[in-house]
Amino acid sequence: MHVNFAPAKHKMISQDFYGFFPSVALVEKLSPEQQILAGAVVLFSRLGLRSVTMDDIARELGISKKTLYKYYKNKAEIVEKGADLVIDHIREFCGSICPRVENPIDELFILDEGMRNFNKMQHQGIQFQLRKYYPETFFKIKEAQRKNFIEVTTQNLEKGIRLGWYRDDFDVQIIANLYYSRVLMIMDEQYFPVNEFDWEKLTREAMLYHIRGIASKKGLEYLETKYASTTK
Predict the structure, then answer these.
(1) Domain architecture of the chain: domains with CATH
(2) The whole model's pTM is what?
(3) What is the per-residue pLDDT across 102-115, written as a single tens digit (0 to 9) for each?
(4) Residue 215 per-residue DSSP state
(5) Fewer CB within 10 Å: C terminus or N terminus of the chain?
(6) Residue 152 vs residues 90, 97, 231: alpha-carbon distances, Å
(7) Measured between alpha carbons, how far is residue 33 from residues 10, 44, 82, 146, 231 in Å?
(8) Does the record carry Membrane as a key word (predicted)?
């Protein structure tokens, strides 16, 4: 059984689904239960946790309520297990970066974009509702996100040092945590209101600031050459 994203009515859900879970390998592994979870996660991200009902989930995913209740007894169970699917997605994304990109600076640009895209899906309204109504689930996702992103950032730093693209005179653990904190901060409108800052320029400047602080002479030369159009 596959969740039926009908072409017309459910077009937006389908697009958001593959935007939220871009890993083809992960999508192909989804069981019927997980397909429903993935669709529900997307629906929550669009409409909010509190307002979405079991009827909404069944209707928007194009399945019967009987099918939905066959797998899940209530919305709370969907939220809880949906969190596990999101965590699997985080692990899948983080684990897929390092093996396929040789240059650590190129790798860092991919990692940075992935972190920001993931955080975009968790807009502040959703996070507020999740923390208020499902606090254990909220902190479970946050801890998994922090742990996995810092782990892959640490791997990137160690790889860059080993290959000579980064300096070898900084504390990897401190820089990895600072980098992750920076990603969270630029997503926070308290510090960077959307009506005051250009998003593309903000993220570009933050990224270049980070790389220039850790790159060796070799790394800086590569950055200025390959990313010349973004460093000006």
Answers:
(1) 11-73 (1.10.10.60), 83-230 (1.10.357.10)
(2) 0.73
(3) 899 999 888 887 77
(4) B
(5) C
(6) 11, 8, 25
(7) 18, 16, 10, 26, 46
(8) no
